[in-house]
Amino acid sequence: MDVELRQLRCLVAIVDEGTFTDAAIALGVSQAAVSRTLAALERALGTRLLRRTSREVTPTGTGLRVVAHARRVLAEVDGLIREAVSGHAHLRIGYAWSALGRHTPAFQRRWAQAYPETELHLVRVNSATAGLTEGVCDLAVVRRPLDERRFDSAIVGLERRLCAVAADDPLARRRSVRLADLSGRTLLVDRRTGTTTAELWPPDSRPATEETHDVDDWLTVITAGRCVGMTAESTANQYPRPGIAYRPVRDAEPIAVRLAWWRDDPHPATQTAVELLTTLYRNG
Fold first, then answer.
1. Residue 2's pLDDT is what?
2. Residues in contact with 107: Cβ distance below 8 Å, sequence separation at least 6, in sequence order
3. Which of 35, 48, 154, 246 has its CA 20 to 30 A from that of 28?
4. How far apart are CA 267 and CA 243, in angstroms?
5. Beta carbons within 10 angstroms of residue 247's beta carbon
6. Which pTM was predicted?
């Protein structure tokens, strides 16, 4: 069964214009071409799509359903074409949990002021590549290295590691904590995108772990006091919650914030984004 886009466009034009003659004018073809194209579509689908009388053309029941699908298909194709032709007019930056923390608003504002011709979109995708592999972004903010065979990346800044505990937890009364303070607790981690693993602790004092795959679930469980978390500083800026206290882990290594992109298909604005983010992180 071969259905062509021109056949779908012809069907929609007939329904929208109301007659074969008007559809032909809208499509810029002859009326005979419209009739042949519709007939080919009906043969391919094996069903009648339109009722034709001397006065009007109306869809059959099947025709109504096919027209609805055809509109969606054509809209998707038109969007695909716009993306391919003018995709560089947009810059989509994916992130898994916390974007750029306190730098997020400044980055958005400065970008809009300096590069109004390239519209910026931040997209949250909770995957290991923050949307790169899924094709939903051009660049991704990640906090752990990606596969160097497929992706390039640049470190744009460093963030402190913070412990997240329930607001009534004894650790919440401290100004900072140490890794050893967490070794007897249950740590809630996201193995796909997170930066925290039990390997941060010595083998004989590693905390128990439970797994989550969503920041909202992570926050909810920690608020209840069942687990504690450790995360990048940006999470505290992005997700302040009355029931959670964030405290610096003073003996934990900082987290490198990377901007990543496909090695063989970098967006033209990649270097510009790297430079702006590096400046923001450098200036605090």
1. 84
2. 100, 276, 277, 280
3. 48
4. 40
5. 19
6. 0.70
